[in-house]
Design brief:
CATH architecture: 3-Layer(aba) Sandwich
Distance between the termini: 43 Å
Mean pLDDT: 96
Bound molecules: 2-amino-3-ketobutyric acid
Strand content: 15-25%
Number of helices: 12
Order of helices and strands: EHEEHEHHEHEHEEHEEHEEHEHEHH
Number of domains: 1
Low-confidence stretches: none
Radius of gyration: 20 Å
Length: about 325
């Protein structure tokens, strides 16, 4: 097997850290990582890490000169809640850095005479259901339904999906000769729950926050109503889905954008789960009407049958396994319970 050079942006974030752990053991992979922050100590040895801003053109030029990337996981993003406080920054980080990387990957595809694979985590935030009645009526929604985002984060993810397709299928479409283009693939992730890290800046954070607070014996005020339901998956499945899509033969892919999910839970389900697992956990519902309004536009469930059909996607963890075999075991270790 030939060696490959893999770039992970947003590497110090939740998905980035988990992806590094999963790729680091592979002898055929040279791992290059970038983030505004350093990696945690235990990951320092696992990659060549650059601390810096992707919007800094000098940093990108340096990476482009130094390495020939075969696979890029572009994870860096400003998440949905933070993006609402600073939409212009979110636009720059989420879309401008993506365009710059797509341009770099295009040049490298042409230099290497083969498509660089570009894996992009999109989100259920690209959906926008107009009201609760519609949300309750359309339960598991498909990739082309209701793509009417109401957040800057959702808008930027949807735009990046579109330009990813553009760079893969239509870039230099008027040139005399068909150019070699990159190979863009995106996953629309639900809320992601990690046993090892706590999310920040997202609006699906109420689920994982509730469990981590309960495990630490800290009271938690949940910022959405008890009946709010959105889809979730645990981190090992999120990383597995990224790697599965990266490895899927191109001829099997009917689309470049795939929903993936594991289970849907309401905020009340999370409370029950947290209190059953950590008796005495103090959880109160104190909905913040504005963050609540964002989650109300996100679907209660998504249909991931395209991923199941095209590249055999299937989550390893259903809700029971997720709790027993992954979350509770590891969270208890994390907090020395
Ligand atoms: C967020 O809440 O912003 C993210 C997401 C659902 O993409 N976790």
């Amino acid at each position: 097997m030939p060696k490959r050079t893999v770039l992970i942006t947003g590497a110090s974030g939740e998905i980035g850290q988990a992806l590094i752990k999963s790729l680091a053991g592979d002898e055929l992979t040279t791992l290059i990582t970038v983030d505004l922050k350093p990696l945690p100590d235990e990951l320092m040895e696992k990659s060549t890490h650059f601390v810096g801003d992707l919007l800094n053109k000098e940093l990108l030029s340096l990476l482009e000169e130094k390495y020939d990337f075969n696979l890029i996981f572009h994870l860096a993003a400003v998440l949905s809640t933070t993006a609402e406080y600073n939409p212009l920054l979110a636009h720059k980080v989420n879309t401008c850095s993506t365009i710059d990387l797509l341009e770099m990957a295009t040049r490298q595809s042409q230099e290497q005479s083969k498509p660089v694979k570009f894996l992009f985590p999109s989100s259920i935030a690209v959906y926008g259901l107009p009201d609760l009645e519609t949300k309750n009526q359309f339960m598991a929604i498909k990739e082309h339904d209701w793509t009417e985002p109401t957040t800057m984060y959702g808008c930027s993810k949807l735009y990046c999906e579109k330009v990813g397709i553009y760079y893969s299928e239509y870039y230099q479409q008027l040139a005399d000769q068909e150019p070699i283009r990159l190979d863009f693939r995106a996953l629309r992730f639900p809320g992601i729950i990690s046993a090892f890290t706590i999310p920040s800046g997202g609006t699906s954070d109420f689920g994982p926050e509730m469990i981590h607070f309960a495990a630490q014996g800290k009271p938690y005020d949940c910022f959405v109503r008890a009946d709010v339901r959105i889809p979730f998956m645990v981190m090992p499945d999120a990383v597995r889905s990224l790697l599965m899509l990266a490895n899927a033969p191109k001829e099997n892919l009917q689309t470049r954008i795939y929903n993936v999910t594991s289970f849907s839970l309401s905020a009340q389900d999370f409370k029950d789960l947290a209190q059953n697992s950590f008796p005495g956990a103090e959880i109160n519902f104190k909905p913040d009407p504005k963050r609540q309004a964002i989650v109300d536009t996100w679907p209660a469930d998504i249909d991931d049958s395209a991923a199941r059909n095209d590249w055999n996607w299937k989550p390893e963890y259903n809700i029971l396994d997720a709790c027993q075999d992954y979350l509770l075991k590891n969270i208890s270790k994390l907090y020395n319970l």
